[in-house]
Amino acid sequence: ARAAPTAGFIERWNVLGSTSNWYSQATNTNPNAGGVDGDGYLRVARTTTAQLGTHCEDTPYAGNWLTASVDRIRLCLDDVDANQALEIHVAIGNSGNFWLYKPGFSPPENAWAQFTVDLADSTQFAHIIAYDGKGFAAALQNVDRVQVRHDVAPYSQSPNGLTGELGLDNFELSGSSL
């Protein structure tokens, strides 16, 4: 059995050099400075036009988010360096049932802003992988990955290509009781 996600958990990237098991085809680094608290952040960069995004398939994200009462994700984003007109989306679920939050976030250039994903409103999600034929609630009960990516409609399994970079910090699992 997977470890349960915990409402109130915040990924801060404040450990020297850590990218905390977040992976992508882009380059993930932690500059060990900057970020919301000045102690580092996850920098995701592409030097050629390709998919700009990152994902984590590790504890503390894997498990049943409904049982854990996690109904929101808060995250801080920065359009690092030059303005790339980013449209950042969060996706959640598993390899057979994956959903993308349709409202896109436009992080400010060289500044941090906090954004919120409302997991309680399934109408705000696009079903981008539907191999198992199950719905949004089933995806939240069996999460094995979260993803942060640049994308524009129409949404598909793969993020859009872009040369650029984004900063991610303070990725928080939240519940309405917090």
What does this structure look like?
This protein is mainly beta. The chain has one helix at 136-141; strands at 10-11, 22-23, 27-29, 42-51, 53-56, 72-78, 88-94, 97-101, 113-118, 125-130, 145-150, 161-174. A hairpin with a 2-residue loop joins strand 7 (88-94) and strand 8 (97-101). The longest helix is centred in the last third of the chain and has 6 residues, at 136-141.
Comma- or semicolon-separated keywords:
12 strands; 178 residues; 6-stranded antiparallel β-sheet; mainly beta
What is the CA-based Rg, rounded? Answer: 15 Å
> Based on DSSP secondary structure assignment, what is the total number of beta strands?
12
The helix-strand sequence is: EEEEEEEEEEHEE
Structural class: mainly beta
Question: How would you classify the quaternary structure?
Answer: single chain
- Major β-sheet profile: 6 strands, antiparallel
Helical content (DSSP H or I, runs of 4+): under 10%
Low-confidence stretches: none
What is the CA–CA distance across the termini?
Answer: 26 Å
**Residue share in β-strands:** 35-45%
Shape, principal axes of CA atoms? globular
Nearest-integer average pLDDT: 92
State the helix count.
1
